[in-house]
Amino acid sequence: MNELRPGEIVTLSVYRTTPLGYILTNEAAEEVFLHRNEATRELAEDEEVDVFLYIDQKSRLTATMAMPKIQEGTYEWLEVVDVKRRMGAFVNIGTNKDLLIAASDLPLYEDSWPQVGDRLYCSMRITHRGMMYGRLATDDIMKDRMTPAPRELFNRDLEGIVYRLLKVGTYIVTDEGYVGFVHETERKEEPRLGERVKARVINVKDDGTLNLSLLGRKQESMGGDAEQLYEYMESRGGAMPFWDKSYPEDIRERFNMSKAAFKRALGQLMKEDKVYQEEGWTYFKGK
């Protein structure tokens, strides 16, 4: 019989009881301790019981009757229950021992790390020393398990969870199992890993994946963009060195919006007779 190893679910027999719990054994006479706090019911000697094995805080192999939601090779959505700087994020796997997803497996900047209550799709990995860590699902894993999106989803609003962050954009898996990509130009700010977001379908690709946008529709976002420009001008005393002929890259850098969105917002302010343009600048009326 193989030796007892952490990360496995095994069937063992109760060899004897102690005041603190139970000594369990296998056919090879290996022993492992099951604390009463880790037992879901009273056990009798010689009774067989299924347990999950792990390394405790004192580096001892120990057992629990609480079954984990994941093991090596299996994946599940798990809730983030704690986040520690420089260490990483802890997820609840259904046992008393939460699983750490190391900082090295999370985004470079901690502002993009998940927060408590966010959810991550991950598996378990066991080190050669028997320590258990969380492993985030790769893009290949997510796409292998995705549901192909139908064409009629175009322009629909969907909700989902961010599972991958790149400089050029954000990957999301929706509640229906569709995989989508949000280009950096289709978001005002980068969402964090594990965050739940609402996105609009702007393209259904031939491979069944989606292109998504976190920006509002034109009629929805115009008010917010116009307000942003107005507040910016207000902070500068009623003027800004931008107008409808400014370079798109300058607009993107300052306001994080496309030139088309900028012109719509500026046009709204002009239509409402709040601002006017002159020689590369935009001014409040009356300023």
Automatic annotation (TrEMBL):
<dbReference type="InterPro" id="IPR014464">
    <property type="entry name" value="CvfB_fam"/>
</dbReference>
<dbReference type="InterPro" id="IPR048588">
    <property type="entry name" value="CvfB_S1_2nd"/>
</dbReference>
<dbReference type="GO" id="GO:0003676">
    <property type="term" value="F:nucleic acid binding"/>
</dbReference>
<dbReference type="Pfam" id="PF17783">
    <property type="entry name" value="WHD_CvfB"/>
</dbReference>
<dbReference type="InterPro" id="IPR003029">
    <property type="entry name" value="S1_domain"/>
</dbReference>
<dbReference type="Pfam" id="PF13509">
    <property type="entry name" value="S1_2"/>
</dbReference>
<dbReference type="Pfam" id="PF21543">
    <property type="entry name" value="CvfB_2nd"/>
</dbReference>
<dbReference type="InterPro" id="IPR012340">
    <property type="entry name" value="NA-bd_OB-fold"/>
</dbReference>
<comment type="similarity">
    <text>Belongs to the CvfB family.</text>
</comment>
<protein>
    <recommendedName>
        <fullName>S1 motif domain-containing protein</fullName>
    </recommendedName>
</protein>
<dbReference type="InterPro" id="IPR039566">
    <property type="entry name" value="CvfB_S1_st"/>
</dbReference>
<dbReference type="InterPro" id="IPR040764">
    <property type="entry name" value="CvfB_WH"/>
</dbReference>
<dbReference type="InterPro" id="IPR048587">
    <property type="entry name" value="CvfB_S1_3rd"/>
</dbReference>
<feature type="domain" description="S1 motif">
    <location>
        <begin position="155"/>
        <end position="215"/>
    </location>
</feature>
<dbReference type="InterPro" id="IPR036388">
    <property type="entry name" value="WH-like_DNA-bd_sf"/>
</dbReference>
<dbReference type="Pfam" id="PF21191">
    <property type="entry name" value="CvfB_1st"/>
</dbReference>
